[in-house]
From TrEMBL:
The keyword Amino-acid biosynthesis does not apply. It comes from the Bacteria. This is Integral membrane protein. Keywords: Membrane, Transmembrane, Transmembrane helix. The chain crosses the membrane at residues 27-50, 62-82, 88-113, 125-146, 152-171, 183-203. The lineage of its organism: Bacteria, Bacillati, Actinomycetota, Actinomycetes, Kitasatosporales.
Length: 342
């Protein structure tokens, strides 16, 4: 609308050029954009199909394999080997080591601290309070006296002469130099102002005014024409992209219908009428007997582990009895025996 208004307001100018270029540009852009949009839509559909039907199931399968290979063996090792070993072997051994450490290390160390180190510490405190402290106070008084004497000598020999020299020699000389500097600065500013004014008018006449004329009468009209052409090309790309989307959608729906009636529906019929009965037969004839055998093996394994735990408890009580430690009543630390199969 703005371009049409411009064409009516300025006949023979920018508006007529835009109107003349609009339809050819849109036709050319549409021919170029339709294949690109169809390829883009095909890639999007293929990516979604691969993500939903291939990558996600493969990722789940890899995750299950990773758990079966890396996680479950370590969990079984921790639960059925390391935890019983720590509970029934390492804990009694650690208790015995702690008792030996108390007898051989802690008790001698306590006696050494009480009868040797404590008297030495009291003697050191007395030596610090009765000898080192008075000596330090005397050294501090001597140092203060020497400091005061040095300060008095420094004031008489350096500070007073320096103040007199600053007041009666350096200050008048500085005032004279400051006055001379102000005069020189005024003269320099006058020269710089004259030279700057001359350079300003020279640059203005030789550079600024010609550049302004070129910008106003050459670059600005050419820029307006190029901007109008660029706007029309952008609008043509937008219209062509939307039209190509509709075309791609229609082609995609047609291809989807053909694929559904040639591939999906026959595959669904094969799955319902052939594969499902075969799977039911395999489950009834193979998978269920295998599962029952696995449950029987699990029961036998649990019984064997229960026997190992009972033996480990008996060994622990014997070790504590040999070390002279209270073994506790037989029922402490044991769990009620569960019926087989629970």
């Amino acid at each position: 609308m703005d371009l049409e208004k411009g064409s009516r307001e300025e006949p023979g100018g920018e508006g007529r050029l835009v109107v003349a270029l609009r339809m050819p540009v849109r036709i050319v852009v549409l021919v170029l954009v339709v294949p690109v949009r169809m390829v883009w839509d095909a890639l999007v559909v293929a990516g979604r199909f691969l993500g939903d039907r291939v990558f996600r199931p493969v990722g789940r399968a890899l995750l299950w394999v990773g758990r079966a290979v890396l996680v479950w063996p370590f969990v079984a090792l921790w639960r059925w080997v390391l935890v019983p070993l720590w509970r029934w072997v390492l804990v009694p051994f650690g208790t015995a080591l702690r008792w030996l450490g108390t007898v051989l290390v802690v008790v001698p160390a306590g006696a050494l601290y009480r009868w040797v180190l404590t008297p030495l510490g009291h003697a050191a405190v007395w030596f610090y309070a009765r000898v080192l402290t008075p000596l330090g106070h005397g050294l501090a008084v001597c140092a203060a006296a020497v400091r005061d004497a040095l300060l008095w000598l420094g004031r008489g020999l350096f500070v007073v002469p320096a103040v007199w020299l600053y007041r009666w020699v350096l200050t008048p000389v500085g005032h004279a130099l400051l006055w001379c500097g102000r005069g020189l600065a005024w003269l320099g500013s006058l020269l710089v102002t004259g030279i700057g004014t001359a350079l300003y008018w020279t640059v203005r006449v030789l550079v600024v005014l010609p550049a302004y004329a070129v910008w106003r009468w050459v670059l600005s009209p050419v820029g307006r024409v190029l901007a109008a052409v660029a706007r029309e090309v952008g609008a043509a790309f937008g219209h062509a992209w939307r039209i190509a989307g509709y075309v791609s959608l229609a082609v995609g729906r047609a291809l989807a219908a053909v694929f559904r009636w040639t591939v999906v529906e026959p595959a669904r019929w094969v799955y319902r009428t052939v594969l499902t009965p075969v799977g039911h037969a395999v489950r009834a004839a193979v998978l269920r007997p295998v599962a029952q055998a696995a449950r029987s093996v699990g029961r036998v394994t649990r019984d064997a582990l229960r026997s190992v735990r009972v033996t480990a408890r008996q060994v622990r009580r014997d070790v504590r009895r040999v070390l002279g430690m209270p073994a506790g009543p037989p029922g402490i630390g044991t769990r009620e025996k569960r019926p087989v199969g629970r």
